[in-house]
Amino acid sequence: MSRSDAELASSSPPLNVSTTARRKWALTQEAFDRLLSSLAEDRAAAGEIYQETRGNLISFFEWRACPFPEDHADETINRVAKRISEGEEVRDLAKYFFGVARMLFLEIQKERAREVHALDNLPEADSSSSDSDETRIDCLRHCLKGISPDQRELIVGYYQGEKGDKIRNRQGLSERLRIPINTLRMRALRLRDTLEVCVENCLNN
Question: Which tens digits make up the pLDDT trace of 155-175?
Fold first, then answer.
């Protein structure tokens, strides 16, 4: 018979999944124990508060349309645990959690802006201005041939149009592929990363 979430929380730290390269600190059992002690003196009660807090943090990121809200909730908890383990005194822990969550959300927004800028600045297939641009476009065409037809449809469809048309195209692509718009965006980002590596390797060779 499996243990309840509260029992799991009261005995071991949450899975330390790294969502970005920026995380360097790893949550330890000692730091997690100190976090639980800050939530309540009774271990079982602390586990229940922990689960409730984590659920509220997940909702916080879901309401703001953040992909992987569970990972962001765990990152928030880890950051709070780190500060407590370093000796920071927190008077209102509930407010503190959401203060840290808001700061993380701002980081996510900035990261999104950088990603969108990179996506929008991949070379278009019909653009040309110099020999180096032509070479890059040739490499992009070569790399596009190396992915599946479904992936090409996704990545090309994601780029099509300008401003309002682009938004409508992405919504139509989301409906056609029967995936949420956030899932579409994340798949496009992963494909973009794959294509960028392929293009750079092609240029270097």
Answer: 877 877 666 777 888 888 888
Residue 127's pLDDT band, with cuts at 50, 70 and 90, is very low
Three-state SS string over 29-82 comes to HHHHHHHHHHHCCCHHHHHHHHHHHHHHHHHHHHHCCCCCHHHHHHHHHHHHHH
Residues 82 and 18 in one domain: yes
Q: Give the separation between CA 99 and CA 89, rounded to whole angstroms.
A: 15
Query: Within this chain, do residues 30 and 65 fall inside the same structural domain, yes or no?
Result: yes
Amino acid at 188: A
Query: Residues 84, 183: one domain?
Result: no
* CB 16 within 8 Å of CB 74: yes
Residue 148 belongs to domain spanning:
122-204
